[in-house]
Design goal:
Shape: rod-shaped
Radius of gyration: 34 Å
Low-confidence stretches: none
Protein name: YveK family protein
Number of domains: 2
Order of helices and strands: HHEHHHHEEHEHHH
Family: Belongs to the CpsC/CapA family.
Oligomer: single chain
Subcellular location: Cell membrane
CATH topology of the largest domain: Alpha-Beta Plaits
CATH class of the largest domain: Alpha Beta
Helix content: 55-70%
Largest sheet: 4 strands, antiparallel
Mean pLDDT: 80
Main location: membrane
Strand order of the largest sheet: 2-3-1-4
Membrane topology: Multi-pass membrane protein
Length: 235
């Protein structure tokens, strides 16, 4: 028996299995909310900005060639900031129980486009720890870079902060719930389509015609309660 399901039939099927679809939707959304809120550890992000010049400011404006030279050195500074030379001191100063390699994975160093401003971003489960690492990395770099590369003008523009109003960057609970809601709808509709498509029970005269392969001369309508009562009284 060939099954063809139209959009109207699928909508009717979804409505017929509204309880099942609602259960799947609520289950997925609830499970996602519980896992995101209670089981996924929050990750916080703290960042500090530093300004790097290759010359000590003497009140004279830097020429374009000096600025271009500074921009070309930004990548070098980024590597130095995440090197064991800097991070070993950060670990010692903060008494961290980690290694320079593991600490480097928590740190990302980026530069603002066409500028000498460098962002040091640290991600950690503890916001205060993330802010402390970001600030200490900037301070150690500021004190050591003059020896490493003859750079004597590093300024910390904005230190990292650890205020209570800062929200974790992971997990994004509202986004997770929205994704779970969409996924719940898709799974519910897919389940309904699956059940309808593989349901081989006979429901209409069209199904009977396709099943036995001969025309239908007539069919018996179900009797109403009044008709059943009248037939019983005539006995």
């Amino acid at each position: 028996m060939e099954e063809k399901i139209s959009i109207q039939e699928l909508l009717r099927a979804v409505k017929k299995r509204l309880v099942l679809n609602s259960f799947i939707f609520v289950l997925i959304v609830s499970a996602t909310g519980v896992v995101s809120y209670f089981f996924l550890p929050p990750i916080y992000k703290a960042s500090t900005q530093i300004l790097i010049n290759t010359k000590e400011s003497t009140g004279e404006q830097l020429n374009p060639q000096d600025i271009q030279t500074n921009l070309q050195l930004i990548n070098t500074y980024s590597v130095i900031m995440k090197s064991p030379v800097i991070l070993s001191q950060v670990i010692d100063n903060l008494r961290l129980q980690t290694t320079p390699d593991l600490l480097a994975k928590k740190i990302s160093v980026t530069s603002e486009q066409n500028s000498q401003v460098v962002n040091v971003v640290v991600e950690d489960r503890d916001l205060k720890k993330a802010a402390a690492i970001a600030n200490m990395t900037a301070e150690v770099f500021q004190s050591d870079i003059s020896v490493l590369m003859n750079v004597d003008n590093v300024t910390i523009l904005s230190p990292a902060i650890d205020k209570t109003y800062i929200k974790p960057v992971f997990p994004n609970i509202p986004l997770n719930i929205v994704i779970a809601a969409v996924l719940g709808l898709i799974i519910g509709i897919g389940m309904t389509f699956f059940l309808e498509f593989f349901d081989t029970t006979v429901k209409t005269e069209q199904d009977i015609r396709e099943l036995i392969g001969i025309p239908i001369l007539g069919f018996v309508s179900p009797a109403t309660k009044n008709e059943k009562r009248k037939a019983f009284e005539k006995r």
